[in-house]
């Protein structure tokens, strides 16, 4: 049997709908997540019942044999042999039943686990860039891995372990009530004590689990950040300071974990002690009943076994409370992402078939969330098809904000940004972005080969096209020098490559898409003069006959731009070619003079 989604169910959409419909009710959510797999759980329950039969039957067989022996029953040997054979058969049946139980239980729970992770991954791809900038990657990673695993564990406990507990207790009580109402009444005394113990600790456990989960997310994010900063830390001899900083966070997690451990330990030990005392009392109680002749001597073992079963099952239920509390907290944690409404919604919007590259910014204002001031304060700009536009200005002037508006990462608070006469807010950005390429300031290289990084997201790229792209991006010398050429592994984040090499790979990745619109965000700002020259040559190859937006601090790199837009105080204050702006002797002239 394959692990796959039930027929007719859109997994990710269904999970998100479950959270939205039952918001605030994690157990309802958990139950609905398994739609299409209830039959597997039912089969798992049936096989579970059969495989556990020896546990329920053995006390009855034991009591019967003792009673037969002490009562000198007729056909004693035959009765003992028959009951022994029945027990051996049930014990042997446990093996295949356990396999079938595990098979169907795992198919259901693993499907849900995989589906939840897919739903989270899809939702992360839909959430806005602003959301990702404001949320630590470590927290999101923790939700996808740790929280989903906790939900899978919760599923097993809720649907199977608790069912096992309920079946064990029910059968024990039913057999007991059929033999002695007096003993049954004694058994019932333990139930209120178990309930009282669980209620007492439930609220404390919920609070501690919540605190611990948040500290773990925070620690995961801090550790990830620390690992990424190791080259900077080592370069400035800040190892001890970084160790101290992370140690403080680790001790905070340890403290939260310690408090959680103490509560869990206290919870378990108090419950265990209470029920062990009652078990001893039960032994003495049934012993006195046997002396009086109220029950048979063999029934002492029956009642003692079933009482032990009830004690152990209620204790198990109590022990499950921390796991259930943790799982419920993880259900809510996953819901924080799946119910997040800060998404990029493209459904039902106009789909672009072609992009020519003519842009208009009309009275554009833009401000980031939780900020009262605007970064752009009435920007007006027209870019013709095929033009290369350089954006210059002081740090914080709004240059990168303009690029984010071009890409569609952000929308104007006021005014209109349009491409080919279409308002960007009214088009399906996925169809638009198929025609653009972005080369960021910090090259994003993933683990894999150079070929993988250049052809990322593209299929069936022929060697001739790839070779032309390598030449245009000035990567030929590098590729020829490497033993495995394009199939050389670049290491994590491209750690085996220099900054200039990584940037040229980014340019090759953009070039192979043959885009109509290109966005460069300070592509040469952190490179040496030789690398900058190679990059600039690659950029010139890439920008031919394509609408291009370039942000650059080094003004010498934008001499060949068709137009230069000087951004200051959220507006375009000067606009023209390099020579025109130099002749104007305004703001751009002063900036160029300072860099000379």
Automatic annotation (TrEMBL):
All copies of domain ABC transmembrane type-1, residue ranges: 57-326
Q: Which SUPFAM superfamilies match?
A: ABC transporter transmembrane region, P-loop containing nucleoside triphosphate hydrolases
Identify its membrane topology class: Multi-pass membrane protein
An example Gene Ontology molecular-function term: ATP hydrolysis activity
Which CDD domains does the record cross-reference, listed alphabetically?
ABC_6TM_exporters
Its main localization is membrane
Q: Which residues form the ABC transporter domain?
A: 359-594
- Gene3D superfamilies per the record? ABC transporter type 1, transmembrane domain (1.20.1560.10), P-loop containing nucleotide triphosphate hydrolases (3.40.50.300)
Superkingdom of origin = Bacteria
Q: Where in the cell is it found?
A: Cell membrane
State the GO CC annotations. plasma membrane
Q: Read off the InterPro entries from this record.
A: AAA+_ATPase, ABC1_TM_dom, ABC1_TM_sf, ABC_transporter-like_ATP-bd, ABC_transporter-like_CS, P-loop_NTPase, Type_1_exporter
Say if the entry is tagged with keyword Membrane: yes
Q: Does the keyword Ribonucleoprotein apply?
A: no
Q: Which of UniProt's keywords are assigned here? A: ATP-binding, Cell membrane, Membrane, Nucleotide-binding, Transmembrane, Transmembrane helix, Transport
Chain ranges passing through the membrane: 41-60, 80-101, 158-178, 184-204, 266-291
Q: Which PANTHER family match?
A: ATP-BINDING CASSETTE SUB-FAMILY B MEMBER 10, MITOCHONDRIAL, ATP-DEPENDENT PERMEASE MDL1, MITOCHONDRIAL
Could you tell me what this protein is called?
Answer: ATP-binding cassette, subfamily B
Species of provenance: Lachnospira multipara
Taxonomic lineage of this organism?
Answer: Bacteria, Bacillati, Bacillota, Clostridia, Lachnospirales
């Amino acid at each position: 049997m394959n692990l796959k989604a039930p027929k007719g169910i859109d997994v990710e959409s269904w999970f998100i709908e479950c959270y939205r419909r039952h918001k605030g009710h994690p157990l309802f959510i958990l139950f609905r997540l398994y739609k299409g797999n209830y039959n597997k759980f039912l089969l798992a329950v049936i096989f579970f019942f059969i495989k556990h039969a020896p546990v329920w039957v053995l006390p009855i067989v034991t009591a019967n044999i003792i009673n037969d022996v002490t009562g000198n029953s007729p056909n004693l040997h035959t009765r003992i042999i028959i009951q022994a054979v029945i027990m051996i058969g049930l014990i042997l049946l446990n093996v295949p039943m356990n396999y079938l139980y595990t098979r169907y239980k795992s198919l259901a729970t693993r499907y849900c686990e995989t589906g939840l992770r897919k739903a989270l991954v899809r939702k992360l791809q839909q959430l806005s860039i602003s959301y990702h900038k404001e949320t630590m990657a470590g927290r999101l990673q923790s939700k996808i891995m740790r929280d989903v695993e906790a939900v899978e564990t919760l599923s097993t406990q809720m649907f199977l372990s608790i069912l096992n507990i309920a079946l064990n207790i029910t059968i024990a009580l039913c057999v007991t009530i059929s033999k002695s109402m007096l003993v049954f009444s004694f058994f019932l005394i333990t139930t209120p004590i178990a309930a009282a113990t669980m209620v007492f600790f439930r609220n404390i456990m919920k609070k501690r689990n919540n605190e611990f989960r948040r500290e773990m997310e925070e620690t995961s994010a801090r550790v990830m950040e620390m690992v990424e900063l190791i080259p900077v830390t080592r370069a400035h001899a800040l190892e001890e300071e970084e160790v101290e900083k992370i140690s403080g966070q680790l001790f905070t997690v340890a403290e939260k974990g310690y408090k959680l451990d103490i509560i869990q330990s206290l919870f378990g030990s108090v419950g265990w002690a209470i029920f062990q005392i009652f078990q001893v009392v039960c032994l003495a109680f049934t012993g006195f009943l046997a002396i009086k002749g109220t029950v048979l001597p063999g029934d002492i073992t029956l009642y003692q076994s079933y009482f032990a079963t009830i004690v152990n099952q209620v204790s198990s239920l109590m022990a499950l409370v921390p796991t259930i509390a943790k799982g419920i907290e993880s259900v809510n944690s996953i819901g924080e992402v799946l119910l997040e409404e800060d998404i990029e919604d493209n459904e039902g919007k106009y789909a672009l078939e072609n992009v020519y590259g003519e842009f208009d910014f009309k009275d554009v204002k833009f401000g980031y969330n939780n900020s009262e001031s605007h970064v752009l304060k009435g920007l007006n700009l027209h870019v013709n098809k095929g033009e290369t536009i350089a954006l210059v200005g002081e740090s914080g002037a709004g240059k990168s904000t303009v690029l984010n508006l071009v890409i569609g990462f952000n929308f104007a608070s006021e005014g209109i940004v349009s491409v080919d006469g279409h308002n960007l807010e009214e088009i399906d950005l996925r169809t638009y972005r198929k025609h653009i390429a972005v080369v960021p300031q910090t090259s994003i290289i993933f683990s894999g080969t150079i070929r993988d990084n250049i052809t990322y997201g593209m299929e069936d790229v022929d060697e001739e096209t790839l070779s032309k792209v390598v030449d245009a991006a000035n990567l030929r010398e590098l590729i020829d020098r490497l033993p495995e050429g394009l199939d050389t592994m670049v290491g994590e984040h491209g750690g085996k490559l220099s900054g200039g090499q990584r940037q040229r790979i980014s340019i090759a990745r953009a070039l192979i898409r043959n885009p109509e619109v290109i966005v460069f965000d300070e592509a040469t700002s952190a490179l040496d003069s030789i690398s900058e020259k190679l990059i600039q040559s690659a950029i010139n190859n890439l920008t031919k006959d394509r609408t291009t937006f370039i942000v650059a601090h080094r003004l010498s790199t934008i001499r060949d731009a068709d137009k230069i837009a000087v951004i200051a105080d959220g507006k375009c204050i000067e606009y023209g070619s390099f020579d025109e702006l130099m002749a104007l002797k305004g703001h751009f002239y002063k900036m160029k003079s300072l860099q000379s």
